[in-house]
Amino acid sequence: MRMLPFSLSLLAVGLALGLPLQAPAQDAALHSAPAAAVQTLPGGAQRRELARGVYEARYSRAANALFVASSEAIANVKGGALYRLDPRTLETTGITYTDSKNFGLAADADGATLYATNSIDSGITAFDATTGEVKGRLRFEERASDGSRYGPRQVIHDPATGTLYVGGVGDPGVIWVVDAATLTLRTTIQNAGKWVTGLLLDREAGRLYAANGDGEVLVVDTATHAIAQRWKPGGEEEALLLNLALDRDTHRLFVTDHSKLKTVLVLDTRDGRVRQRLPVGDSMGILFNPVRGELYVTHRDQGTLSVLDADDYRVLRTIELPPNPNSLELDPSGQVLYVTIKTPFNKDYSASGFGSVARIPLE
User: Could you tell me where the beta strands, DSSP code E, fall in 61-181?
Assistant: First the structure.
Protein backbone atom coordinates (compact mmCIF):
# COMPACT_ATOMS: atom_id res chain seq x y z
CA MET A 1 0.00 0.00 0.00
CA ARG A 2 1.38 3.38 -0.98
CA MET A 3 2.48 5.43 1.99
CA LEU A 4 0.89 8.86 1.98
CA PRO A 5 2.72 12.06 2.87
CA PHE A 6 0.87 12.91 6.06
CA SER A 7 1.18 12.27 9.77
CA LEU A 8 0.44 9.01 11.51
CA SER A 9 -2.62 10.63 13.08
CA LEU A 10 -4.11 11.08 9.62
CA LEU A 11 -2.89 7.62 8.69
CA ALA A 12 -5.10 6.32 11.48
CA VAL A 13 -8.00 8.08 9.80
CA GLY A 14 -7.34 7.24 6.18
CA LEU A 15 -5.65 3.86 6.35
CA ALA A 16 -6.63 2.05 9.50
CA LEU A 17 -10.26 3.13 9.49
CA GLY A 18 -10.52 2.37 5.83
CA LEU A 19 -11.41 5.51 3.90
CA PRO A 20 -10.68 5.66 0.17
CA LEU A 21 -8.27 8.47 -0.60
CA GLN A 22 -8.62 8.78 -4.37
CA ALA A 23 -11.93 10.61 -4.79
CA PRO A 24 -11.97 13.86 -6.81
CA ALA A 25 -12.35 17.06 -4.81
CA GLN A 26 -15.90 18.34 -4.37
CA ASP A 27 -17.48 21.20 -2.47
CA ALA A 28 -18.78 20.23 0.98
CA ALA A 29 -21.79 21.88 2.57
CA LEU A 30 -21.10 23.09 6.10
CA HIS A 31 -23.95 21.25 7.83
CA SER A 32 -25.19 17.79 8.74
CA ALA A 33 -27.53 15.94 6.47
CA PRO A 34 -30.97 17.55 6.41
CA ALA A 35 -33.78 15.69 8.13
CA ALA A 36 -35.24 13.42 5.49
CA ALA A 37 -37.43 10.38 5.15
CA VAL A 38 -35.66 7.15 5.94
CA GLN A 39 -35.02 5.10 2.82
CA THR A 40 -36.56 1.63 2.85
CA LEU A 41 -34.31 -1.13 1.54
CA PRO A 42 -35.19 -4.69 0.44
CA GLY A 43 -36.00 -7.03 3.31
CA GLY A 44 -37.34 -4.29 5.57
CA ALA A 45 -33.99 -2.59 6.16
CA GLN A 46 -33.79 1.18 6.60
CA ARG A 47 -31.12 3.69 5.68
CA ARG A 48 -30.68 7.32 6.60
CA GLU A 49 -28.06 9.91 5.60
CA LEU A 50 -26.54 11.45 8.72
CA ALA A 51 -23.28 13.40 8.47
CA ARG A 52 -20.04 13.84 6.58
CA GLY A 53 -17.55 11.61 8.33
CA VAL A 54 -19.52 8.87 10.14
CA TYR A 55 -17.38 6.17 11.72
CA GLU A 56 -18.35 3.69 14.46
CA ALA A 57 -21.75 3.13 16.10
CA ARG A 58 -22.56 1.77 19.56
CA TYR A 59 -25.85 0.84 21.22
CA SER A 60 -26.46 2.19 24.74
CA ARG A 61 -28.84 0.28 27.00
CA ALA A 62 -28.78 3.11 29.53
CA ALA A 63 -29.97 5.67 26.99
CA ASN A 64 -31.91 3.20 24.79
CA ALA A 65 -30.20 4.85 21.86
CA LEU A 66 -27.76 4.27 19.04
CA PHE A 67 -24.73 6.58 19.11
CA VAL A 68 -22.62 7.37 16.05
CA ALA A 69 -19.19 8.99 16.14
CA SER A 70 -18.53 11.54 13.40
CA SER A 71 -15.39 13.39 12.39
CA GLU A 72 -17.46 16.07 10.63
CA ALA A 73 -15.02 15.75 7.73
CA ILE A 74 -15.79 19.11 6.13
CA ALA A 75 -13.31 21.66 4.82
CA ASN A 76 -12.68 24.51 7.30
CA VAL A 77 -14.68 22.81 10.07
CA LYS A 78 -12.86 22.05 13.32
CA GLY A 79 -14.09 19.37 15.67
CA GLY A 80 -16.59 16.55 15.41
CA ALA A 81 -19.88 15.30 16.77
CA LEU A 82 -21.53 12.44 18.61
CA TYR A 83 -25.02 11.72 17.24
CA ARG A 84 -27.76 10.09 19.32
CA LEU A 85 -30.35 8.21 17.23
CA ASP A 86 -33.64 6.50 17.93
CA PRO A 87 -32.70 2.82 17.41
CA ARG A 88 -36.05 2.06 15.72
CA THR A 89 -36.51 5.04 13.42
CA LEU A 90 -32.91 6.36 13.09
CA GLU A 91 -34.23 9.83 13.92
CA THR A 92 -31.69 12.15 15.55
CA THR A 93 -32.61 12.69 19.20
CA GLY A 94 -29.45 14.47 20.32
CA ILE A 95 -26.07 15.83 19.20
CA THR A 96 -22.91 16.64 21.16
CA TYR A 97 -20.46 18.83 19.24
CA THR A 98 -16.81 18.52 20.24
CA ASP A 99 -13.64 20.41 19.42
CA SER A 100 -11.92 17.11 18.52
CA LYS A 101 -12.96 14.84 15.66
CA ASN A 102 -14.45 11.49 16.71
CA PHE A 103 -13.71 8.14 15.06
CA GLY A 104 -13.71 4.86 17.03
CA LEU A 105 -16.41 4.37 19.67
CA ALA A 106 -16.84 2.08 22.68
CA ALA A 107 -19.35 1.81 25.53
CA ASP A 108 -19.14 0.54 29.08
CA ALA A 109 -21.21 -2.47 30.14
CA ASP A 110 -24.60 -0.73 30.29
CA GLY A 111 -23.81 2.05 27.84
CA ALA A 112 -23.90 4.82 30.45
CA THR A 113 -20.51 6.11 29.31
CA LEU A 114 -19.20 6.25 25.76
CA TYR A 115 -15.56 6.57 24.74
CA ALA A 116 -14.47 8.02 21.39
CA THR A 117 -11.00 8.04 19.85
CA ASN A 118 -9.78 11.39 18.58
CA SER A 119 -7.32 10.11 15.99
CA ILE A 120 -6.08 13.44 14.68
CA ASP A 121 -5.62 14.90 18.18
CA SER A 122 -4.04 11.71 19.57
CA GLY A 123 -6.55 11.35 22.40
CA ILE A 124 -9.83 9.91 23.67
CA THR A 125 -13.01 11.56 25.00
CA ALA A 126 -15.57 10.18 27.46
CA PHE A 127 -19.27 11.12 27.12
CA ASP A 128 -22.25 10.74 29.41
CA ALA A 129 -24.76 8.82 27.29
CA THR A 130 -27.80 10.21 29.08
CA THR A 131 -26.91 13.90 29.02
CA GLY A 132 -24.47 13.98 26.09
CA GLU A 133 -21.98 15.93 28.19
CA VAL A 134 -18.22 15.46 27.88
CA LYS A 135 -16.99 13.76 31.06
CA GLY A 136 -13.26 13.86 30.42
CA ARG A 137 -10.40 13.60 27.97
CA LEU A 138 -6.95 12.07 27.72
CA ARG A 139 -4.24 13.10 25.28
CA PHE A 140 -1.45 10.62 24.52
CA GLU A 141 2.02 12.14 24.52
CA GLU A 142 4.08 9.30 23.00
CA ARG A 143 5.44 9.77 19.51
CA ALA A 144 6.27 7.30 16.78
CA SER A 145 9.79 6.67 15.46
CA ASP A 146 9.49 9.49 12.91
CA GLY A 147 8.39 11.99 15.56
CA SER A 148 4.72 11.97 14.56
CA ARG A 149 1.95 11.68 17.14
CA TYR A 150 0.19 8.33 17.28
CA GLY A 151 -3.32 8.10 15.85
CA PRO A 152 -5.67 6.23 18.21
CA ARG A 153 -7.90 3.97 16.13
CA GLN A 154 -10.00 1.53 18.14
CA VAL A 155 -11.01 1.61 21.80
CA ILE A 156 -12.58 -1.22 23.78
CA HIS A 157 -13.78 -1.38 27.38
CA ASP A 158 -13.25 -4.11 29.96
CA PRO A 159 -16.02 -3.76 32.58
CA ALA A 160 -14.45 -6.31 34.91
CA THR A 161 -11.35 -4.20 35.51
CA GLY A 162 -12.56 -0.75 34.47
CA THR A 163 -9.93 -0.66 31.74
CA LEU A 164 -9.83 0.88 28.29
CA TYR A 165 -7.54 -0.55 25.63
CA VAL A 166 -6.66 1.86 22.82
CA GLY A 167 -4.69 0.92 19.71
CA GLY A 168 -2.19 3.46 18.40
CA VAL A 169 -1.39 3.68 14.68
CA GLY A 170 2.33 4.32 14.34
CA ASP A 171 5.56 2.51 13.58
CA PRO A 172 6.09 0.72 15.84
CA GLY A 173 2.52 0.72 17.10
CA VAL A 174 1.44 0.81 20.73
CA ILE A 175 -1.53 -0.22 22.85
CA TRP A 176 -2.48 2.13 25.67
CA VAL A 177 -3.98 0.74 28.88
CA VAL A 178 -6.20 3.41 30.44
CA ASP A 179 -8.23 3.69 33.66
CA ALA A 180 -11.79 4.11 32.35
CA ALA A 181 -13.06 6.00 35.39
CA THR A 182 -10.29 8.59 35.64
CA LEU A 183 -8.97 8.57 32.06
CA THR A 184 -5.41 8.21 33.33
CA LEU A 185 -2.79 6.15 31.52
CA ARG A 186 -1.89 2.99 33.43
CA THR A 187 0.75 1.63 31.06
CA THR A 188 1.74 1.43 27.40
CA ILE A 189 2.30 -1.85 25.60
CA GLN A 190 5.23 -1.17 23.29
CA ASN A 191 6.48 -2.76 20.05
CA ALA A 192 3.04 -3.90 18.94
CA GLY A 193 3.97 -3.99 15.25
CA LYS A 194 3.36 -1.42 12.55
CA TRP A 195 -0.04 0.28 12.91
CA VAL A 196 -2.17 -1.34 15.60
CA THR A 197 -5.55 -1.55 13.87
CA GLY A 198 -8.09 -3.92 15.44
CA LEU A 199 -8.55 -4.92 19.08
CA LEU A 200 -10.70 -7.60 20.66
CA LEU A 201 -11.00 -8.61 24.32
CA ASP A 202 -11.61 -12.16 25.52
CA ARG A 203 -12.25 -11.50 29.22
CA GLU A 204 -12.77 -15.14 30.19
CA ALA A 205 -9.42 -16.17 28.73
CA GLY A 206 -7.58 -13.09 30.02
CA ARG A 207 -6.53 -12.18 26.50
CA LEU A 208 -6.46 -9.11 24.34
CA TYR A 209 -6.07 -9.73 20.62
CA ALA A 210 -4.55 -7.02 18.42
CA ALA A 211 -4.21 -6.92 14.62
CA ASN A 212 -1.55 -4.87 12.86
CA GLY A 213 -0.13 -3.79 9.54
CA ASP A 214 2.73 -6.27 9.74
CA GLY A 215 0.19 -9.04 9.20
CA GLU A 216 0.32 -10.12 12.82
CA VAL A 217 -2.25 -11.03 15.43
CA LEU A 218 -0.84 -10.31 18.90
CA VAL A 219 -2.02 -12.20 21.98
CA VAL A 220 -1.67 -9.96 25.04
CA ASP A 221 -1.93 -11.27 28.60
CA THR A 222 -4.33 -8.83 30.30
CA ALA A 223 -2.93 -9.64 33.76
CA THR A 224 0.65 -8.66 32.90
CA HIS A 225 0.05 -6.61 29.72
CA ALA A 226 2.85 -8.58 28.07
CA ILE A 227 2.66 -9.75 24.46
CA ALA A 228 2.55 -13.51 25.01
CA GLN A 229 2.34 -14.63 21.36
CA ARG A 230 2.67 -13.24 17.86
CA TRP A 231 0.80 -15.08 15.12
CA LYS A 232 1.38 -14.37 11.44
CA PRO A 233 -1.53 -16.12 9.72
CA GLY A 234 -0.59 -14.99 6.21
CA GLY A 235 2.89 -16.45 6.51
CA GLU A 236 5.26 -14.72 4.11
CA GLU A 237 2.40 -13.05 2.23
CA GLU A 238 2.07 -9.32 2.76
CA ALA A 239 -0.97 -8.60 4.92
CA LEU A 240 -2.62 -5.62 6.57
CA LEU A 241 -4.94 -7.11 9.14
CA LEU A 242 -7.78 -4.90 10.36
CA ASN A 243 -10.74 -5.99 12.46
CA LEU A 244 -11.50 -8.97 14.68
CA ALA A 245 -14.43 -11.11 15.84
CA LEU A 246 -14.53 -14.07 18.22
CA ASP A 247 -16.56 -17.24 18.67
CA ARG A 248 -15.13 -18.34 21.99
CA ASP A 249 -17.11 -21.59 22.23
CA THR A 250 -15.54 -22.97 19.04
CA HIS A 251 -12.10 -21.38 19.55
CA ARG A 252 -12.40 -19.32 16.37
CA LEU A 253 -10.92 -15.86 15.86
CA PHE A 254 -11.91 -14.05 12.68
CA VAL A 255 -9.69 -11.31 11.21
CA THR A 256 -10.28 -9.21 8.10
CA ASP A 257 -7.91 -7.91 5.44
CA HIS A 258 -9.26 -5.28 3.10
CA SER A 259 -6.28 -4.41 0.93
CA LYS A 260 -3.66 -7.16 0.78
CA LEU A 261 -4.99 -10.69 1.30
CA LYS A 262 -8.57 -9.51 0.63
CA THR A 263 -10.19 -12.20 2.74
CA VAL A 264 -11.38 -13.21 6.19
CA LEU A 265 -8.96 -15.48 8.02
CA VAL A 266 -10.36 -17.98 10.54
CA LEU A 267 -7.78 -18.74 13.25
CA ASP A 268 -7.76 -21.33 16.02
CA THR A 269 -7.33 -19.46 19.30
CA ARG A 270 -5.55 -22.42 20.88
CA ASP A 271 -2.51 -22.31 18.59
CA GLY A 272 -3.00 -19.54 16.04
CA ARG A 273 -3.20 -21.85 13.05
CA VAL A 274 -5.34 -20.86 10.08
CA ARG A 275 -8.43 -23.01 9.86
CA GLN A 276 -9.78 -21.41 6.72
CA ARG A 277 -9.69 -18.44 4.37
CA LEU A 278 -13.15 -17.28 3.40
CA PRO A 279 -13.50 -16.40 -0.32
CA VAL A 280 -15.51 -13.25 0.30
CA GLY A 281 -13.11 -10.66 -1.14
CA ASP A 282 -12.08 -7.39 0.46
CA SER A 283 -13.27 -7.35 4.05
CA MET A 284 -13.49 -4.44 6.47
CA GLY A 285 -15.82 -4.71 9.49
CA ILE A 286 -16.69 -8.09 11.01
CA LEU A 287 -19.07 -9.15 13.78
CA PHE A 288 -20.09 -12.55 15.17
CA ASN A 289 -23.68 -12.94 16.38
CA PRO A 290 -24.00 -15.88 18.82
CA VAL A 291 -27.77 -15.43 19.06
CA ARG A 292 -28.29 -16.33 15.42
CA GLY A 293 -25.06 -18.18 14.64
CA GLU A 294 -24.20 -15.65 11.94
CA LEU A 295 -21.18 -13.70 10.82
CA TYR A 296 -21.46 -10.22 9.28
CA VAL A 297 -18.77 -8.75 7.02
CA THR A 298 -18.66 -5.35 5.31
CA HIS A 299 -16.94 -5.04 1.94
CA ARG A 300 -15.86 -1.47 1.31
CA ASP A 301 -14.86 -1.82 -2.33
CA GLN A 302 -17.83 -4.03 -3.21
CA GLY A 303 -20.25 -1.73 -1.42
CA THR A 304 -21.97 -4.70 0.21
CA LEU A 305 -22.65 -6.48 3.48
CA SER A 306 -22.42 -10.28 3.65
CA VAL A 307 -24.47 -12.34 6.10
CA LEU A 308 -22.77 -15.72 6.54
CA ASP A 309 -23.73 -18.91 8.33
CA ALA A 310 -21.08 -19.01 11.04
CA ASP A 311 -20.88 -22.82 10.96
CA ASP A 312 -20.31 -23.56 7.28
CA TYR A 313 -19.63 -20.01 5.99
CA ARG A 314 -22.41 -20.08 3.39
CA VAL A 315 -23.44 -16.61 2.27
CA LEU A 316 -27.05 -16.39 3.41
CA ARG A 317 -27.69 -12.86 2.24
CA THR A 318 -25.90 -10.04 0.43
CA ILE A 319 -27.12 -6.49 1.04
CA GLU A 320 -26.17 -3.59 -1.21
CA LEU A 321 -24.99 -0.63 0.89
CA PRO A 322 -22.94 1.62 -1.41
CA PRO A 323 -20.57 3.30 -1.48
CA ASN A 324 -18.45 2.13 1.48
CA PRO A 325 -20.08 0.10 4.29
CA ASN A 326 -17.83 0.30 7.32
CA SER A 327 -18.58 -0.66 10.95
CA LEU A 328 -21.14 -2.96 12.58
CA GLU A 329 -23.20 -3.02 15.78
CA LEU A 330 -25.97 -5.25 17.17
CA ASP A 331 -28.89 -4.29 19.37
CA PRO A 332 -29.14 -6.13 22.73
CA SER A 333 -31.56 -8.74 21.33
CA GLY A 334 -29.15 -9.77 18.57
CA GLN A 335 -31.97 -9.40 16.07
CA VAL A 336 -31.15 -5.95 14.63
CA LEU A 337 -27.90 -5.03 12.90
CA TYR A 338 -26.67 -1.46 12.41
CA VAL A 339 -24.13 -0.53 9.72
CA THR A 340 -22.31 2.76 9.18
CA ILE A 341 -21.73 3.65 5.54
CA LYS A 342 -18.97 6.02 4.52
CA THR A 343 -18.29 8.09 1.44
CA PRO A 344 -14.84 8.53 -0.19
CA PHE A 345 -12.40 11.23 0.82
CA ASN A 346 -11.80 14.31 -1.28
CA LYS A 347 -8.18 15.25 -1.95
CA ASP A 348 -8.20 17.49 1.12
CA TYR A 349 -9.48 14.56 3.27
CA SER A 350 -12.94 16.02 3.61
CA ALA A 351 -15.86 13.66 2.97
CA SER A 352 -17.25 13.74 -0.57
CA GLY A 353 -20.82 13.18 0.63
CA PHE A 354 -23.06 12.40 3.58
CA GLY A 355 -22.36 9.16 5.37
CA SER A 356 -25.30 6.96 6.35
CA VAL A 357 -26.56 4.57 8.99
CA ALA A 358 -28.52 1.44 8.07
CA ARG A 359 -30.83 -0.57 10.32
CA ILE A 360 -31.25 -4.21 9.24
CA PRO A 361 -33.83 -6.51 10.91
CA LEU A 362 -32.43 -10.04 11.08
CA GLU A 363 -35.55 -12.02 12.07
Answer: 65-70, 80-85, 92-98, 105-107, 113-118, 123-128, 134-139, 151-158, 163-169, 174-179
